[in-house]
């Protein structure tokens, strides 16, 4: 059963926030959805947005400026939280990059995380089914995008589910988490010490073993403070080149890691998805 907890009119459509008891994460989950004006009279394609470390569903909806473009393009935008939440959910309050706010879009296998931290199944199974049952979406017409940890999430969701998404895009994704300290910290905790098991959750590793990539657009900022230490776009590019997989990876001059960067290019990403889902 879903509960609507907020409804705000924006660009002729509605920005809504919903809560539900998640069978996958075993806690109350919150997500936001933007329904453009066209949703009042017709079914529409849907874009799933996965946010980064420290975010809730709120960051993208107040900072990215996506809703104006969704209203123009006739796209529904779904914005889940980045982790399970609540008093019963394990957390490391002194860490921003582990625990609540840092679900990393994997299915944890290790105690104490595995009961609730099933974000991959949540965003690829439970949430899409809920969205298709509850909102005027065209069944199966979906795309996925995200930022940083959420860019990694968008890439692995697309790579691990051939045919599920018409297109994937990402802003400053963590392209090779097994070699980044953010990825290593979360994968070690959630997935355990066997690094071979981590590779099933890493976009670059998945490309190397032949996972198919749908139409893909990636932007990184050249002034991103996390570029060298955490993101490794060159590894993803090299893996795609070795496999002959087309990838549009743009290095945007002077942009940082923030939502200012995302707001600058979100219109191009949404138009890219609208085109992919129209064909
Ligand atoms: N040093 C920061 C780190 C957190 C941060 O930069 N989070 C980014 C995503 S980074 C990768 O997933 C973010 O989106 N933050 C929220 C925002 O609204 O900008 C810290 O101290 O928190």
From TrEMBL:
List of catalytic residues: 148, 224, 257
InterPro entries linked: AB_hydrolase_fold, Esterase-like, S-formylglutathione_hydrol
UniProt cross-references to Gene3D superfamilies, sorted A to Z: alpha/beta hydrolase
GO cellular component, one term: cytosol
Keyword vocabulary terms for this entry: Hydrolase, Serine esterase
GO BP field: formaldehyde catabolic process
Entry's transmembrane regions: none
Catalytic activity line of the entry: S-formylglutathione + H2O = formate + glutathione + H(+)
EC numbers for this chain: 3.1.2.12
One MF annotation (Gene Ontology) recorded for this entry: carboxylic ester hydrolase activity
Enzyme class: hydrolase
Top-level taxonomic group: Bacteria
Annotated SUPFAM superfamilies: alpha/beta-Hydrolases (SSF53474)
Similarity comment: family membership: Belongs to the esterase D family.
Its biological purpose: Serine hydrolase involved in the detoxification of formaldehyde.
Name by which UniProt lists this protein: S-formylglutathione hydrolase
């Amino acid at each position: 059963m879903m509960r609507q907890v907020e409804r705000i009119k924006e660009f002729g459509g509605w920005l809504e926030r919903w809560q539900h008891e998640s069978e996958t994460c075993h806690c109350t989950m919150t997500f936001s959805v933007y329904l453009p004006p066209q949703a009042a009279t017709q079914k529409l394609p849907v874009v799933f947005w996965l946010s980064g470390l420290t975010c809730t569903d709120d960051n993208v909806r107040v900072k990215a400026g996506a809703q104006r473009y969704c209203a123009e393009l006739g796209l529904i935008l779904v914005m889940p939280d980045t982790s399970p939440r609540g008093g019963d959910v394990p957390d490391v309050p002194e860490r921003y990059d582990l625990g609540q706010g840092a679900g990393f879009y994997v299915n944890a296998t290790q105690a104490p995380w595995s009961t609730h931290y099933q974000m991959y199944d949540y965003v690829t199974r439970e949430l899409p089914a809920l969205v298709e049952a509850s909102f005027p979406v065209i069944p199966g017409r979906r795309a996925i995008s995200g930022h940083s940890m959420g860019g990694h999430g968008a890439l692995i969701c697309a790579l691990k589910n051939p045919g599920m998404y018409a297109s994937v895009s990402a802003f400053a994704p963590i392209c090779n988490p097994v070699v980044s300290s953010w990825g290593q910290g979360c994968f070690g905790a959630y997935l355990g010490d066997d690094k071979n098991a981590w590779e099933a959750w890493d976009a670059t590793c998945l490309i190397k073993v032949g996972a198919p990539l749908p139409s893909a657009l990636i932007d990184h900022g050249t002034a991103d403070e996390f570029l060298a230490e955490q993101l490794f776009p060159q590894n993803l590019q090299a893996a795609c080149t070795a496999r002959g997989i087309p990838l549009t990876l743009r290095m945007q001059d002077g942009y940082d890691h923030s939502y200012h960067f995302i707001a600058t290019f979100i219109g191009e990403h949404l138009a890219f998805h609208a085109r992919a889902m129209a064909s």
